[in-house]
## 1
Amino acid sequence: MPFIPHTSAEIDEMLNKIGVLSIETLFEEVPDRLHCPPLDLSPPLGEMAVSRLMRERADADAGGLCFIGAGAYEHHIPAAVWEIASRGEFLTAYTPYQAEASQGTLQVLYEFQTMMAGLTAMDASNASLYDGGSGLGEAVLMAVRANPDHNKVVLIPASVHPHYRQVVETMTQDQGIEIIEIPFDPVEGRVALKSLASFRGKKVAALVIPQPNFFGILEEVDELTDWAKAEGAVVIGLVNPLTLGLLKPPGEWGEEGADIACGDGQPLGSPLSSGGPYFGFLCCKQKLLRQMPGRIVGRTEDPSGRSGMILTLQAREQHIRRSRATSNICTSQGIMTVAAVIHLSLLGPEGLAKVAAMCHAKTVALVNKLTAIPGVSRQFTGPFFHEAALRLPKPTAAILAQLSRLGIQGGYRLGEAYAKLDKAILICATETKTEEDLDFYADTLVWALNVKESF
Amino acid sequence: MTTTIFDASRAGRSNRQHAPQDSQTPLDIPERFLRKTPPLLPQVGELQVVRHFTLLSQMNFSVDTQFYPLGSCTMKYNPRICHVLASLPGFLNRHPLATEGSGQGVLRSLYELQEMLQEISGMQAVSLTPMAGAQGEFAGVAMIRAYHRSRGDEGRTEMLVPDAAHGTNPATAAMCGYTVREIPTNAQGDVDLDALQLAVGPQTAGLMLTNPSTLGVFERAVERMAAIVHEAGGLLYYDGANLNAVTGWVRPGDMGFDAVHFNVHKTFATPHGGGGPGAGPVGVGNRLAPFLPLPVVQKQIRDNGREWFSWMSEKDLPQSIGRLSTFAGNVGILLRAHIYLRMIGAEGLKRVAEFATLNANYLMARLTEAGFAVAFPKRRATHEFIITLKREADEFGISALDFAKRLLDFGFHAPTMYFPSLVPECLLIEPTETETKETLDRFADAMIAIRQEARDYPQRLLKAPLAVPVPGGGIGRLDATRAARKPDLIWKESAVL
């Protein structure tokens, strides 16, 4: 029996001890009429057969060179990361409720919290959330709780990832929170300070500031932060943690810094994997700590004064406060944070900055090569980090499909989320791309643009 | 604790092999956007990193190394092959926004998983996107809310939840804007039907129910409960936390539920990962199908007769409650569940419920025979059961916590403690189907030995754990109060170890 170790002699002994004749008897409290007929599932496969099936499927999915970013980024993950993170002792443990038997996981999380707080220049971090989108949703709920004297209004620029904004909408729609979209400047591709003017004195609860924004453009985070702080609004910095090797951390934006930093941790050791699992992170200033959702690990002592780690501040959580909890979340993305901590330990501050700088340099190089093609131009003028919106002279869907057939995942079609950007695609080149890869993209795009009729 | 990775850091030590060559282009980002001081990250060599985290891993209990009878968590064996196949490069390297043509393998697998989950639950449609059980609950309750609204039925403001429910149930209902009304449990461990009848009305949006319940017994009157709630115009939500007890035997759809979430990290053997990631797909009947969270995989037959798998969008499901995850949920975890189900099939799934139930009832029989008090002695255990140590607490002055901590010294992870809270000094024990009889016997022997200790040397239990059998296991009971009073949540240079 797959994964069930019982021998028939043992089954008999066990039934005998229970005092029944058959296993079926143990289900006697289930009303007979509820017993279902045999399930209609495909016949079971042995390990060899299922391996063959899945290998065929995985091989068919190899998508060629990837130049898509848009919230998920291809980075080199050192071999040691998943060699260690996949150890059964990490992978098959549960939430570390029994601290004395979970010191490994707990200490990794403590180190994780330290690294995330350091990257964002915040005082505290939780042990992770599901992903960037739901992490922003939790940050918005947290900001509104933390600002009870203000209106339940949160400003989110349209330059935030469209999927993130959809997740926030889903998570906040029944909380009486109004989400107001702030337009971006159509020339620069980022929020202009003047577009916030109409909210002056309106006691908004929070402002979300993405850095870099969805288009890869660097927002003027200092002036946006100062504006929001002057309004008494909570500032939520939405950041890509990899870029924080180089970019100013949310805790240092403007005069006072942001109050909350969140984002998706995928660039720190999570494979692309068609969208997940990744992890969300959430960091905050000390004064907001008790409003933080999710697991938090703290250091404590045993009776003889030895240090150890334990889940703490649990009075915020659902298993204690039930309907009055800060969130219904009762997990973190455990193993993804283990990978992130190992990844960051291997890179160190210098390595992280180098990867970030190289991503920027490759994207600059790619933008230069592609915009040299007649009809291809930058959509926005603002400074960018490692993504850029490019306008194409032909329908973007057909071009991307064409590129895909030629072994290039060419980018994200901005028209999917922004009707006015229907002619543009969002591209990204990370440190994984060589000069030859960039040339191959440029050459292929020239070819695709010149094919008589796209099929 | 062992020293942290930060303590091993030395300025100037680095792993050049993981950093790209220096860029030829000078950095052209304006100064005002740049950070002034490097972030606090360790500077350590690769061997130091590998050794540090390998040693930390060894300080954990895990299913791979210890019996983990954590009630309501289904800590069963996580087949290695599922992990290996879900980690194939073709799956790992695919971008979520890559063309659908380059994802037919993964999309087909996800589509098949949707179909399998529909069949297992007796539901009509499934969305895989929730990233955890709690998010699946959120999706279920949000769909119930959307359903009532779509009918202009705005007065339904109350969600009914049994008093024994998981904490996520009331927390979820509150996140969806509902007032929570608790329904009491009767002495036999069933939901009190009279109280339910009295509680329902035009304000009832629905009932969230776990069956088998968190008390480790099957709600025998579930059909009657469904009728009461449906007659009042409410819908029923099935918390799939305990599905491992009944797979292939009973289906939530047949019991009368309108929505269900699955915990693939429990029932379908995906690893718990030290707290995640899991996945919490939702299944629904026809009434709720238009409201499923996005995205959902659909199958179409193309002109050339070939099957084509693609994501459904807002256009296909305009009444959807929306997105819950940035992309498509925890795809890698869902692949593991798919592989597990392909391996065990229908018969295997039924066997899972049978042997999970056999193991629980056997262990309950052994503990009963040894004189432990079972919370519901007249009931069959499902895949888990509760013992109450109230008598031991009164007689020897020890608590369920002391018992649990002492179990760690014997090399067993402790059962779930103090949940459900209506049973005093309780341990919720779930052995799962993948454990052998010898392991169950050793666990029962340890329980008996600990009770003898409680009688003879109660002081020893109060101090437990004394020597947890993992590296670094000399650590004594950690002070939770101190941790909360003086939070030390990040490492600081000056910290004295």
Note: The radius of gyration of chain B is 25 Å.
## 2
Amino acid sequence: MTTQTAPALNCTGLSYSFGDAKVVDGLDLLVGQGEVFGLLGPNGAGKTTTMRAITTLLPVPPGVIEVFGHDAARQKMAVRRLLGYVPQQLSADASLTGRENVQLFARVFDVPRRQRAARVSQALDAVGLGDVAHRLAATYSGGMVRRLELAQALVSAPRLMILDEPTIGLDPIARDSVWERITEIRVAAGMTVLVTTHSMDEADQRCDRLALMHLGRLRALGTPAQLKNELVAHRRESGETGLPPPSLEDVFRHHSGAGLNDPGSGSDEGKGAFRDVRRTRRTASRLG
Amino acid sequence: MSAVPVAPHPASAESVPPDQRFALLLTPPPPRTGWRVVPARVTAMCVVELQKLRHDRTEIYTRAVQPALWLLIFGVTFSRIHAIPTGGVPYLDFLAPGIIAQSAMFIAIFYGIMIIWERDSGVLTKLMVTPTPRTALVTGKAFAAGVKAVIQAAVVIVIAALIGVGMTWNPLRLLGVVVVVLLASAFFSCLSMSIAGIVLTRDRLMGIGQAITMPLFFASNALYPVALMPGWLQAVSRVNPLSYQVDALRGLLIGTQAHLGLDLAVLAFAALAGIVAAGSLLGRLAR
């Protein structure tokens, strides 16, 4: 299978443990080229660990994760060249200007010098920051910082954009603005987008397909409409009548709500859970 | 296995002509391979460090206070006491290279804190998802710390010159000073990044950093000749890279007898070992 025809992401039997806690347990995912694929789940579901494995930050055995046909264990550099990654934290360097932030990523992705300035400008223009590129990132609003991070990821022309809760802590206007930019660039560049979010509205409106994880396992997979229809069918079978049409939030609760407070589950007690929550709160607090 | 993907979103790129505004963003840059990767990453990290210093020079000024006090108070006072035999060299002249080495080491030894801050803020994670091998990333960071240390060393050299320390202004010797400070700072910053990779938190690293800096400083020839030390301390001094840095700086700046070849070899080896150690521990920070 060539890079042109291979799925954007093929994840087969991914498992990962921190000590005794199994945070991802036999996850299978297939993401087609050009999709906007949402990974949903409650805190401790294993989303961030999955993202970290896909981005080669965590070691995985050969044959488990392939990005456009490249094995994430054997061909790390090739995989990284295909990725654009925006982590959950506000990761732009506040002590550099917007342009300098993007220039750094142009350099580490080997953009030739003769092309660097123009490419950096295009990336900044693409996210609507061309006019303020000379300002220190410390002076940017939360939405602008997120757009700057998008520009950093875009400068290398990634084929798979990985966004870890890109709109967390943003007001609705900034959130829309970030998604408009993502969509516009995705349309122009033909990127595949893999996104995690806790916003069910966002997942419903923006994602082609969704995977719902809980306790490290895949609990549901499909388009937002398919997932809602499945819940309707389930309600019908179990005799639950007179309920309004389900929202994606109902689907989320149906698949993960029962286990959220399960003290024996081990997932929310996992090593990364406290750190994840702290990071989320820190990011939200920095965005004000 | 998950189900076969549905057809992409209607607005996907396959059906829409590429926007000319983003023309350059549609083609991935040609990958740099082989030996050219490390120098490219080192340049990238050093440029960032210089850009940060250009925007905010406060750190350069505040960090100059301590070495200035060492020279102006400790140095001037001990020059009057004549208590330390320096082989005919004025004590202030003898001390100045030691203080340059000390101030450069202080910058480098706390570089690991910056790595932990970058981990917490997501900057490190993002850099680790770029086509940059761990050792290249660590080498880039190590030499970026070196750039900062060289600027600090330049400030201390100017202060030393202003208070009358007789130093060389020979450009070749000054170039040698730059090389020595870069290599030593690369080692100390890698030591710091290695500790960061082990302890993983800022507080623990602060404690360890403070615990090792003064012993490294006192167990070197920065303040007094090695011959004055008790035997056990001389043994520590012989494995302390700071001693080799001071010896080289003294030879280059003051013209005392130095073992430049040995000094450079030890510093280069220490830097290389530091890069390997820090590179292998860096992944722990991403987990």
Note: Residues 15 and 265 of chain A are 16 Å apart (CA to CA).
## 3
Amino acid sequence: MSAVDPTFDLDGQPVPLQPGDTILSAAARAGLDIPHLCWSDEVSGSASCRLCTVLADGRPVAACVTPAVAGQKVECRTASLATQRLRLLQMLFVEGNHFCPGCEKSGNCVLQVQAERAGMTALHFEALNPERPVDASHPDVLFEPNRCILCQLCVRASDEIDGKRVFAIGGHGIATRLLIDSPSGRLGDSALSVHDRAAHICPVGALLPKRVGFAVPIGRRRFDNEDTRG
Amino acid sequence: MSTRPLETAADPEGLRRIAIDPLSRVEGHGKVTLLLDDDNRVRQARLHIVEFRGFEKFIEGRPYWEVPVMVQRLCGICPVSHHLAASKALDRVVGGWPVPPAADRIRRLMHYGQIVQSHALHFFHLASPDLLFGFDAEVDRRNIVGVAAAFPDAARQGVMLRRFGQEVIRITSGKRIHGTGSIPGGMNRAVDPAERDALRAGLPQMLDWAQDAVTLARRLHENLPARYAGFADTPAAMLSLVGRDGAMELYDGVLRLREADGRIAIDGFDDQRYRELIAEAVKPWTYMKFPYRRSLGVDQGWYRVGPLARVQNCDFIPTPRAEEARQGFVAAHGGQPVHAVLATHWARMIELLHGVETVAELLDDPLILGGPLRTEGPRQCSGIGIIEAPRGTLIHEYEVGDDDLVTRCNLIVSTTHNNQAMNEAVRAVALRHLDGETITEGLLNHIEVAVRAYDPCLSCATHALGQMPLAVSLRAADGRLLDHVLRSPGGELLRDAPAHAAETAS
């Protein structure tokens, strides 16, 4: 980094920028964490989860789609935003059926780790307990809609990486759901392959390669730390 | 002693009702109800399981690879039993049975670690207060805190034995409770050499303490007051797995059923054919089913599982100290079958000693450190896994569709096998110790002592944990409430407290 490289300020730390950077992509490159669920550097941003909301010069914006601007003052770790993130995560939990104890994604789940980092110890809101039938029609990929948080990562990966557009978002409000492009609406009739990026990019346990389950032991999962080393 | 007429009173109208609700110092939630006539004679005695059992239903529709982890939530004390029974059933589904030798050893290590921790928990934390202080001792002493104050060495040894077992589970499954080590077709981890060595270092002490536990259990049993001779003595057939050579075998074996008089009725029975041997009946007053031998029918076909059955069902225990203890148990009873329920504690500690010895052997086995851990073969549509859980024979059975989702699940847990046997014990104690007597807390605890000897895991059978106060109501023949006593969690007896809500139930 030269002395003239542009930077912005993230919670008091200077973050170098490059052309085309969003606040989140620049922070991630600098090794600074802005909480997020629906962002990946593999696909375009969608600002669907809003967990990455920060204050840019005092204005709330989604860091994953907001261009980084030199000299800007960005606040991420404020008490108000922390509360907002916690509530947002709690709403995601009650809108689906997220039972970490029996979920194979536990330890590798972005929703779980964000909830833990946000200090979530209870649901706070009343659980809606939706009834969403599991789609196991695909020979190699399981769709467990009870865990879907509508982040659209699979939608974008199928479109931008796999070139298939297997997934889309449909419906409105609380009835919003992931749509599958197939005559039956089921995964088994779609063009999805277990080798597609879309089959692996899900941050939660909604889209999973089949028959993997708990193959990775406790202690070697993505988010295991000293407390979960096994 | 025949107790059968006490299951259902001929004319329940006008009888006084006493409820022990919920039972305390057992795992889970249950109650005992007694109906007494005007002469205080017991006319009906039932052990009810008051929670609904739901796992069999909500496992349906789940992908099979989730099941060994999910079913552990049946229980917080012996989750490893469900973990391994489900794994053994699903090994068959993925064509992975038998699992590779390394996986077999590590699973066994996990299982025997659980035997140690669960048996230590039951004997020292739950049962020993009754045995050390007396069934009708003061309530505020009759708990593990009271044991720690009066018998600190015994309490400490119990805690440390349990901790040892929990550590064995952790190094094989990743967590002390609800780990993920076993998967269909094998294991997802081997044992770390450094963690093995740390456990090995504690073995000599654990072996000695386990031996002491057998001595203590034997002494307490043999020194029971004379009035408890034959306490809850309920002759029953005995069912368990045994090795093909007749050895005690808790992880995988063949079914053996021994009649109450000691004769072997069925031996070498393939566990995959258990449904030819056992059926389940339901009764309208409890959520727990009643398994029975098909050949004898529901009334005559009940049997006992667990330590008392296993120690007598096997020909020998394949570890030296426990085998010596088993021989001592047999000799002390003149080689005759033992059906005194309190002898279960003695048998349980023999098994704890066997557990520690087996853990010691397995920790010396280099196979636990690695090698092929998982295998698969031709897919099957169903699988059965039977294991000897700490409380007795545990059966898991699954059918899996072509789409990998479970279509049918049947679980027969240890406590369910013992349902009729526990009811018989309740009736025997009610007749012997409560018939015609005035209610006291100590007398009611006699019934709990009998149930407690089975170490029932009511949440395994029902999937609910509850608070543990005790409420007893005394009603006149016309239904008027004459007396209501509430025992608070702190042990206080409160006479003017409002009646427990469950008291109005059946």
Note: The longest strand of chain B covers residues 392-400.
## 4
Amino acid sequence: MYLQYIIDSIGTGSLYALMTLGLALVFSVMGLMNFAYGQLVMIGGFAMILLRSQPWWVLILGTVVAVVIVSLLMERLAFRPVRTATAMTMLITSFALAQLLQQAARVAFGANPRPLEQFSELSVQYTVGDLYISRMTLITVTTTLVSVVVLALLLKRTNIGVQLRASTEDVEMSKLVGIRSNRVIASAFVISGVLAAIVAMLFFSTRTNVSWSSGESIVLIAFVGAVIGGLGSMVGAALGGFLMGFTYTMLNALLPVELRVFADAILYTLVIVVLLIRPAGIIAAKGVRV
Amino acid sequence: MGQSVATWRRWAWLTGLLVIPLIILAVLVYLTGDISWIQRASSALILMIIVVGLHTFSGNSGVISFASVAFAMIAAYTSALLTIPVEQKPSLFPDLPFFLEWLASFSVPVPLGILMAVAFTGLIAFIVGIPLVRLSGLAAGIGTLAFLVVVTVIVTKWKAVTRGESTMVGVPKETTLWWAVVGIAIAIAIAALYQMTRRGRRLIASREDDKAAMSIGISIPIERLWGWTLGCAIAGLGGALYGHYIATFSATTFGFALTFFTVAMLVIGGLGSLTGAVVGVLVVQILAEFLRTIETQGLGPIPMLEFPGITEMVLALIMLLVLILRPAGITGGREITTWFRRRKSAPAARGAST
């Protein structure tokens, strides 16, 4: 029984971990908490609706390309001009951008949620003893693990990854040794966009519709997960996101029915407690000022 | 209070320069006799109270807070619970928990209800402020955002007391344009006084340079707690007035959308000055009403644009442009009084009035 809850919680936790990674990556490079990140996932969802009838590889590729383009435009048009402003101004800029994208989606796709035809091949359930594991949970966990490994290799082994990490450590110094910060930041937004697209595909595959307001709850989770996990640390962010998803699903399963509706309230109270004990997050990166 | 005459004079100038134009504006709107304009002006002024409350903490301390709307919500619900007529209470709240049953046995006049709601909000703010003000930067943002989520969930799910997802009804609708004017005048007067007295100056000092402030013996958590409690109580005043203005409301009335707008208005006006809070609300509200008019009925040669969300979209775009072109906001964080002083060619003492 409990094992079943744990399996379900791991599934949600992996998805949330993936959500926080894209946000944390951009933060660690330019100190920007990008509130518009959730809207990238929402745009990914609408791309899936438009490409639903295409072969699967077109759907995946199309969604990724669409989200990456929007992510890059975001960086170029909105965030580059405010890069030197205060953290507060950058945060509000991303707020305004999130609002803009959300309302644009509302104008373009209407105020009502758009139905997304289910992927029947994903809802297959496997039984192991008396445990149920859905194919979707397996895919989510695998995708998260693969993404984390690929991201780690990218950051450790490739040229752009080394430059990214150098910029994370010290922007001024990395400029002095000839790293072009524009290119590095843009590539962070590309990776963040790819992650958002992956999140969109995993997230909306289990939903029946996409709405202009879908991105809101996602960015809230990512934002909170990234901060409690430890800003500036990729491992911390993934851990924070995982803990958010894991705790939330566990709370929903274990709380008595009459308290279950307050699961969110309990989760976010725990978040405040974690912040008070470790304001810089569970795994605090060195030298990150929060 | 031990303030010098010069401080009181500066206070009177700042309050007067901000409040008098607002009163004139309100009178002009009232004289047009157009109900919809009077309504728009009232809600803009009430919103301004919440933003002034936000400024009192965030503007002076430099620490972001997403919680002011949560306190507005607490105050609106408190005042509603206190002022709904006694005879309606049993049918509206049939299952009050035992420790709140006394609420059903009486109701108070609206002004008293608002005062009690503000006091209660201040008390809650003080209690949750003790841990929350220790956070800075993004952790403060997340902490206050988490608090907003907690309050929203409780209000949405605690059906017995808040009517849950169904709207609060039966709230006396008594807030008029004049109540809103009095409310904003009080809010501005208190906020202006706070930032000129010793307590406020200490908080501003901690914003400018936390280490220097600590080195001269300022306890940042204590100063922040004062500013936080005062700011949240002011936001509560706005929330309670708003509740008695719209009379039917639910948790979604005070959600993320309102939070975004209040924070954005403060930043667009110019974070760090009371003038910025007032100007930000005025500019954004006038713009929003202008766009809404176009969306619903067209304006002159501009045809009606029947897309739900187009107003919010254009508004967000304009906010984005302001932030990109003028990151310090319209006022650049300066008070209106500095412009007057500069004209008299006295040495522009920037620090003296921010």
Note: Residues 2-30 of chain A form the longest helix (29 residues).
